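S.,

Sequence below, as promised.
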Amino acid sequence: MKKSEHPYRYSTEGAIIYETLGIRDTTYESGFLELQRLLGDVRGRQFLDFGCGTGRSSEFLRSLGAVVHGVDHNLSMVEQAQKKTCDGMTFTLMEDVIPAGEKSMDGAISANVFIEIKTLDYMREACREVARVLKPDGVFVVMSANPAAFRSNFRNFSYSAREGVQSGERVICTIKSQGQSFDIQDTFWQENDYRSALESSGFVVESVTYPRPDVLWDTDESKVPPFIVIKARKIST
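The prediction came back faster than expected:
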């Protein structure tokens, strides 16, 4: 595949700012709590974190008891993640193929990665790669930006998409953490885009939810759920 189809490639400066983002008391907390609910008991199970970034989502999985294998396309992100020292958690740079054996993982997650994928073809290819490394009936939970949130200003990220934005169009997302911010280029995808990518790649979609945060901030979290969370399962073969 073309490198232009890969998720956004963060600069070193952007990766450092992103590393300061936690989960608790951030916009992301509601999405991760929903991810936890959908995964259930993962203690001792081998999990892939596809697009692990600086390791925030991997640390979350590890806190639930999973053995985590984080992979990411971006060297700056992986270098930040590799500074973390924790048994049962590894981070590896990947190119086109996930560095894991066929049917080697019990489950997988991908948090805020699909929103950075630039074409449906690459999204399908990414889903096929995740399916390849999952055991039959393995669960894959995808957390991404709610398509209805692309004109919203949240505590830790915001969009300024024009009215009538279409699937596949690029939209600037501003990431905000501890008084610092940087812009990245996301891609607008609708629920059906995510569904079709998964269903054409060996998965059956079991649920689609839009978790609503319980917050009192003056930003848009109380008006628009920031995330869509999709639970899919690899078709048993």
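The domain at 3-147+190-234 is CATH 3.40.50.150 (Rossmann fold).

Coffee later?
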